[in-house]
Amino acid sequence: MQLYDVAKPVLFQLPPETAHSVVHSMLGVAQKSGIDRTLVQRYRVTDPRLSSTVFDIDVPNPVGVAAGFDKNAEVPSALSGLGFGHVEVGGVTAERQSGNPTPRLFRLAEDRALINRMGFNNHGADAVGARLARTRVDVPVGVNIGKSKSTPLSEAAEDYLYTYGRVESSGDYFVVNVSSPNTPGLRELQNRDHLEEILGTLKDAGASPLLVKLSPDLTDKATEAALAVVDDLELDGVITTNTTTDRPDSLESIHRAETGGLSGDPIEERATRAVRFVAERTDVPVIGVGGVSDAAGAYAKIRAGASLVQLYTGLIYEGPTIARDINRGLLELLERDGFDSIEEAVGVDLE
Ligand code: FMN
């Protein structure tokens, strides 16, 4: 019996955001006390076949933590202790924000999904930047940057630039997040003119590696237009996908009508299709995210063209062994298919 078999029913009795705070506090204690370094021995799967170099960064294994779990960069070392190969902190905004009124996070247990409308609650770029600067993490840390709610779309580029300036020396890669559904108008920034301005401004400021995170709700044409900007500006990578505002008919939970972004099992296939669509149209590395909760799902995204995968909702449903379980499973799948490394498997399902 695993610890999470006991803890999960207790946590699932709590409102989702409370459960998240409890888990976060526990990870915080682990990180402060140094227990996270003991966790490593239990959770990390160290095997050269899992490691790769992606946009010039050495990544020990392909399973990362998606943005939103550690919005304020409080527990990246503890998450590395759970065996994740990279951690994306944030979304961070220039201004400190309290986010939307609660409740704003909903557990769709029957669907193994979440709906969130957090609205970029975070401590702000100054605080998060300072915290990151004094935190040592032994896996790469990406910083997911969002737009402050009060900043008009026309001034978005400066807003992103401010945040970048606060985190530039402590992030290993930087993500322009223009795809969260919970900041009014944000997703409009995925259109070509806005993207060019924001990404061009960060690029000129020296942001590297620089990635953009896309929504699963973009039309094919809009995705292609965004990818044209990625090519023109010689960006380093694409993350796909964020949460969706769509509600598949299959959803059973009473919470399905809540406003916000849906994540977890119901978006898995769609996200994998998005990975394939993007990987077919760009040469830069793709990070695949959306519904990953086991080795088969991670492997499907890798074969569809993802150099790395990330997860959030899967961690809630599967618990702290998820990175270890996926990494062990990936090694078996690599062996089954005769690959010597993850890098060999990336994109093998593409035409
Ligand atoms: N994505 C971002 O780019 N920035 C965020 O700040 C962010 N916050 C999130 C908060 C919550 C509560 C959840 C559930 C997701 C958030 N996401 C955010 C989206 C995740 O990073 C991820 O793209 C999405 O949940 C799909 O992955 P999953 O199915 O593994 O959860």
Automatic annotation (TrEMBL):
EC class of this enzyme? oxidoreductase
Name the Gene Ontology biological process terms: 'de novo' pyrimidine nucleobase biosynthetic process; 'de novo' UMP biosynthetic process
Q: How does it sit in the membrane?
A: Peripheral membrane protein
Q: Give the EC number.
A: 1.3.5.2
Sorted keywords for this record are: Cell membrane, Flavoprotein, FMN, Membrane, Oxidoreductase, Pyrimidine biosynthesis
Q: Does Flavoprotein appear among the keywords?
A: yes
Q: What does the cofactor section's free text say about binding?
A: Binds 1 FMN per subunit.
The domain of life for this entry's organism is: Archaea
Q: Where in the cell is it found?
A: Cell membrane; Membrane
Which biological pathway?
A: Pyrimidine metabolism; UMP biosynthesis via de novo pathway; orotate from (S)-dihydroorotate (quinone route): step 1/1
- Dihydroorotate dehydrogenase catalytic domain: from which residue to which, for each copy? 50-334
Q: Which GO terms describe its cellular component?
A: cytoplasm; plasma membrane
Q: Where is the active site?
A: 180
A Pfam family name for this chain? Answer: DHO_dh
Q: How does it assemble?
A: Monomer.
Write down the PANTHER family for this protein, in alphabetical order: DIHYDROOROTATE DEHYDROGENASE (QUINONE), MITOCHONDRIAL, DIHYDROOROTATE DEHYDROGENASE (QUINONE), MITOCHONDRIAL-RELATED
Q: What does this protein do?
A: Catalyzes the conversion of dihydroorotate to orotate with quinone as electron acceptor.
**Family listed:** Belongs to the dihydroorotate dehydrogenase family. Type 2 subfamily.
Q: What is the name listed in the Swiss-Prot or TrEMBL entry for this protein?
A: Dihydroorotate dehydrogenase (quinone)
The organism is Halocatena salina
Q: Which gene encodes it?
A: pyrD
